Amino acid sequence: MPLATQPHRETIPSVVNLLQSPKRVRVVLNGETIVDSRDVLILRSNHFLPVYFFPIEAVRPGVLIASGRTGRHRSGDPTALYALDVKGRRFTDAAWSFAAPRRDHLAPLENRIAFDWHAMDAWYEEDEEVFVHARDPYVRVDALQSSAHIEVVLGGEILAETRRAVLVFETHLPTRFYIPPDDVRMERLVRSDTLTRCPYKGTASYWSVRMRDGSIRPDVVWDYRDPIPEIPKIKGLLAFYPDAVDQIRLDGLPA
At 117, is the secondary structure helix, strand, or coil? Predict the structure, then answer.
């Protein structure tokens, strides 16, 4: 699914660990680079999205303002919140740190700062922009050509049927089935204006489905017209949201 979701199931035990990133990471806010460092730690888990942590001394002087406000991270640990002042504009609660890491393996995060992803203008690893959230080094995306029999059913009709799909296996997410347009009833699809981004695949475009009664079921299908270079196999193929159709069948069985 192109939309960012929490990468876990509640029944799976939580795993939390800390990794050193080998990459230069930069953050831009209000047109200014507010932090630029190769000394970046990544807090990652199967129960929350990964987070970049920077040394406080790597943050541009005068930007961080302790607010005295507190919060709580999804890990359960308390946080101290900061405002950011960039070129005279203040951004409330746009940065945070762990107030007192409770677990020994989080101790290296003392004197490190994280930023509210969506409050920032842009994030970069080396010279390439990263979208949606920090990239998890443990996430793997495999795009495999398959001769499995894939059928997509909506409104009692088969909208797509193929034996030449590309199956995408992405860590923490269900298998996605990318189908050639020639094997999809394209006359029933209507291009949508919706766009979303994935840090591992690129920018997704959407299609709605025109039902038999003429009604429109919005944003049922997505494709990557120009995926990032690391995953070229899905370019121009179509994938259906499982929850938006009656059923996706894999070799005759519910996928």
Answer: helix
Q: 196: part of which helix (H) or strand (E)?
A: strand 189-198
Q: For residue 20, what are the β-bridge partners?
A: 41
Angle at 115 between CA 128 and CA 54, to 5 degrees: 75
Token reading at 71: 């919060």
Tell which residue, 160, 172, 221, 165, has the closest CA to residue 200.
172
Give the CA-trace dihedral at 175, 180, 182, 188, to 10 degrees: 50
Of 70-74, 199-203, 251-255, the poorest mean pLDDT is in: 70-74
pLDDT single digits (tens) 100-146:
756 667 889 989 999 999 999 999 999 999 999 999 988 899 999 99
Task: Find how far residue 128's CA is from the centre of its chain.
Answer: 16
CATH classification code of 16-130: 2.170.150.40
In angstroms, rounded to a whole number, what is the distance separating the alpha carbons of residues 2 and 196? Answer: 7
- For tokens 């192109």, the residue is 2
Percent share of the chain, pLDDT over 90: 79
**Cα–Cα distance measured from residue 200 to residue 130, given in angstroms and rounded to the nearest whole number:** 9
Q: What kind of architecture, by CATH, is found in domain 141-254?
A: Beta Complex (2.170)
Taking the C-alpha atoms of residue 162 and residue 237, their distance in angstroms, rounded to an integer, is: 12
Return the half-sphere exposure (C-beta side, CA atoms, 13 A cut-off) of residue 234: 27
Q: In whole angstroms, give the CA distance from residue 201 to residue 192.
A: 19
| Integer Cα distance of 56 and 34 in angstroms | 11
Residue 120 carries which side chain, given as an amino acid letter?
M
- Ranges of CATH 2.170.150.40 domains, the chain: 16-130, 141-254
